[in-house]
Amino acid sequence: MGMAVARVSRHAGEAVRRGHPWIFRSAVGQVSSREEQGLIVRIVAEHDGQREAVLGAGVFDPISPIAIRVWSVGADARLDAGVFRERLVRAIALRGELFADGATDAYRVLNGEGDRTPGIVVDRYADVAVLRIDGDATRAVSPLLLTSLEPILRDAGVTTLLERIPSRDAGGRDTTVAVRFGPERSRVVVREHGVPFVVDVARGQKTGAFLDQRENRRRVGELVAARARAGLGTRTLNLFSYTGGFSQRAALAGATVTSVDVAAKAHATAQESFRLAGLDPAEHTFVTADAFAWLAEAKRKGQTWDVVISDPPSFAPSERAKPKAISAYRALHRSCADVLAPGGRLVAASCSSHVSLEDFLSTLDDAALGRSDLRVLESFGPPPDHPTVAPFFEGRYLKLAMLA
Ligand code: SAH
């Protein structure tokens, strides 16, 4: 099959050589065929009319701002079912190594760009896997590329594969669910470092849970346990608690936890997970409220906590939204610092891909917090089941800083 050729700017060519997986529309010149959506193309850099060697192969999208998702780099780059198969096998082998102790059965199997399968994400929840395909062009070529997905996942013990498809009416925010193989499933009990919790793979956020925070949930459990051993206070406030992952780990380590989220349904799931882990939800507080308004009220009442966790939804959907996002983080962190007891721990996270770690730390300075006693102890990025390629900063959207 003759591959179409896409000519790209010299600058984009350099980025491709470095391993950047996206080529934006403005960098793409002539494409030898524009008829199909989801065309597999050979990428050729061109400057001053001089044609250079083939740089790689990728998927061309005539509509999206991300014009090409680059899969393979090099003069003999291919893109076919064999390439996908090879990447998937490698991805599964890495997770086999990462989760060899058997204590965790919920993790990202395939991290799209980061596992060099741009736009294709697979999460695993025990024996259920959830597929997400980003971009119409990637969706169009997926029947051609993903032929080995079912046999390989079945081999790895997956009995149901669901697909979360972004629905257009909701601007991609909402998803519909399709069964790719196996019986339909929604509620799944998984384990993270041996701790059981409930995931709704059909209706939950993202593909069901925020798997990217797994190691941070563990860290919160460890810090609460260490404080308890040292005889320090452990009253914990978990803001934007969703299904209570951080809350559960803090409670297991001995904390009394207040969880705040606007979604009442998320609290119901959190309470179910508390019970599964042998915790009594009645000993903890679950508040359905807007976190910002609730924090103002807590400050007015003079309430404080020893550990405050903040993990809000993304504030910066685009580069343009970044300045507003920075001010929003500063205001939120101020409200967190206002209810943090002296000697307490502040755990602040951001999942905005346009806000770098340094940008994020700038929202935790003394002026933002309105106090000058806090130090940054540690900061963390995404966990190893969410690998990224070095030049692709967008992949490292998750940041978490611990202050004391
Ligand atoms: N920490 C969670 C993930 C948080 S996701 C975990 O580890 O699983 C962000 C959460 O913020 C969602 O559950 C959403 O319902 C909630 N949320 C969004 N806006 C909010 C607001 N203004 N006040 C309180 N919660 C909010």
**Unreliable stretches:** none
**What ions, cofactors and ligands are bound?**
S-adenosyl-L-homocysteine
The number of helical segments is 11
CATH topology of the largest domain: Rossmann fold
Work out the strand percent. 25-35%
CATH superfamily of the largest domain: Vaccinia Virus protein VP39
What is the overall silhouette?
A: globular
Radius of gyration in whole Å, from Cα? 23 Å
Beginning-to-end CA distance, first to last residue: 60 Å
Count of DSSP E strands? 20
Give the helix level as a range of percent. Answer: 25-40%
How many domains, in number, for the residues?
3
CATH C-level label of the largest domain: Alpha Beta
CATH architecture heading of the largest domain: 3-Layer(aba) Sandwich
Please, what is the average pLDDT? 95
Provide the spatial order of strands within the biggest beta sheet.
16-15-14-17-18-20-19
Summarize the biggest pleated sheet: 7 strands, mixed
Report on the architecture of this protein.
The chain has 404 residues and is α/β, with parallel strands linked by helices. It has three domains: 4-73, Roll (Archaeosine Trna-guanine Transglycosylase, Chain: A, domain 4); 81-195, RNA methyltransferase domain (HRMD) like (Transcription Regulator spoIIAA); 211-403, Rossmann fold. Helices cover 29% and strands 31% of the residues. Helix 8 runs parallel beside helix 9. It is globular and about 70 Å long. The chain starts with a strand and ends with a strand. The relative contact order is 0.09. The mean pLDDT is 95. The structure holds S-adenosyl-L-homocysteine. Residues 210, 213, 240, 242-243, 245-246, 260-263, 266, 290-292, 311-313 line the site of S-adenosyl-L-homocysteine.
